[in-house]
Amino acid sequence: MTNATDRPCTLVVCRGCCCGDPRKHPGTDHAWQLDRLRAGAVDSRGRFAVRTTDCLGPCDQANVIVVQPSTAGRRAGGRAVWIGFALDDDCTDELLNWAAAGGPGIAEPSATLALQFIRPPREARARARR
User: Fold this and answer.
1) What residues have CB less than 8 Å from 17, skipping those under 6 apart?
2) 1-10 CB burial, b ≥16 within 10 A, e <16
3) Where along the chain do its domains lie?
4) Tens of pLDDT along 44-77?
């Protein structure tokens, strides 16, 4: 049973100082990536959401996207997953597929996407333990 307070899986897309910066990654169409993620959220009929934020921290691993579990995913033991080097269409496709399938706690990521998992910065890990 779905409750009105149940949150979907959420992709938090860093668009701060380094992520999304065409000077740092000139071969990546950052606007297109964000457009594709947002269109995927609409196409999946609410199974996941997309939002942007300022700098998430690990700038040397830009572009960074955090995949937050849905309410159901969190109940099943899912935790936020940090993805680094999210720069190409293949990674964007894999993120879309994983989020549409339910994300952390609900569906397994592809093996290639799992290779892009990064450790969250120390500050984010401290917040998660509270």
Assistant:
1) 54, 55, 59
2) eeeeeeebbb
3) 9-129
4) 878 899 999 988 888 889 899 999 999 999 999 9
Q: Which of 25, 7, 6, 29 is nearest to 17 (CA)?
A: 25
* Cβ atoms 80, 129 nearer than 8 A: no
pLDDT number for residue 2: 52
d(CA 81, CA 69): 8
pLDDT tens profile 95-115: 999 999 999 999 999 999 999
Quote the pLDDT of residue 95. Answer: 97
Give the torsion through C-alpha atoms of 85, 91, 96, 97, to 10 deg.
-130
CATH 3.20.20 applies to domain 9-129? no
For CA atoms 106, 111, 112, 117, the dihedral sign is positive
Per-residue model confidence (pLDDT) at position 127 = 54
Beta bridge partners of 66: 12, 82
